Amino acid sequence: MHRRSWEELPTALRHAVEAGTGPVLRTEAPSAGRNSTFAAFLHTADGTVFVKGVPDYDRLVTVHEHEIQINTRLRDAVDDAPRLLWVVHSEGWLLAGYETVPGEHADLTPGSPDIPAVVDALSHLAQQLTPSPAAGASPLRKRYARLAGWQWLADNNADQLDAWEIQHLDRLIQFDHKVPSSLLGDALVHGDIHQLNLLVYGDQVRLIDWAWSRTGPPWVDVALLVARLIGEGHEPAEAEHLVSGTWGMQHASATPDAITAFAATLYGQWRRLAVEYPSPHREVAVRGARRWIQHRLSSG
Fold first, then answer.
1. Nearest to 211 by CA among 90, 106, 65
2. Where are the domains of the chain?
3. CATH number of 105-299
């Protein structure tokens, strides 16, 4: 995606933004992010605001609309998400201004001092967001059913399956069929847990970018963290132990069968995305999910 600069935006759109922020003195590009045609920190005399958005014709406009709706509800529900400050819809563009969150991307490698704070933050958020404060948010199970990867891989890219995947393919496909019932729940889950969305500032962790949030069981976000921890070098049993005491994993819905079905479908989803949309940034996620489901199937 070609990222537009501030100067490339329509003049009337920039004036509409500055009507709320004051004159923009300088801009700064973010170090991460792939889903916005425009994203920048706007520095003004009154402070800094993070702004992102897309043209109305962009296929991701609905994703941005969803994030705006979710953040409107989060504003009153939790303290750990960036505040939505304003929305400008003008000149064929949708832009949203968010509170600037200080901090560095979380380090999830073994021994990192960030990990306990990340685990605690996700546990606290799960409790705060059960039940979901965002009425009408789409169920997570629909997304996982739509992106289920194993049958798709078997039908379209069987030559890319390795020996372990072929050996377990029937069972993996069965997990894809089972996972929607495992993802029933009324919690609001972030759904996109990785280092770039976790900002650590001292002992505080803020979770940003709620564009992929859905409703589901309250253990989903820490389950996603498990796969990321494994991808960063943790042993699967160790990663599971790190999140075992969280509020979500103590919930009645966090059964061993549900977690295993989720791990299998997560691996299949990420394998499918890596085949459909190859990118180096997917490698760690795929590796972590693979080791996780292999561990659960070998020890189950």
1. 65
2. 6-99, 105-299
3. 3.90.1200.10
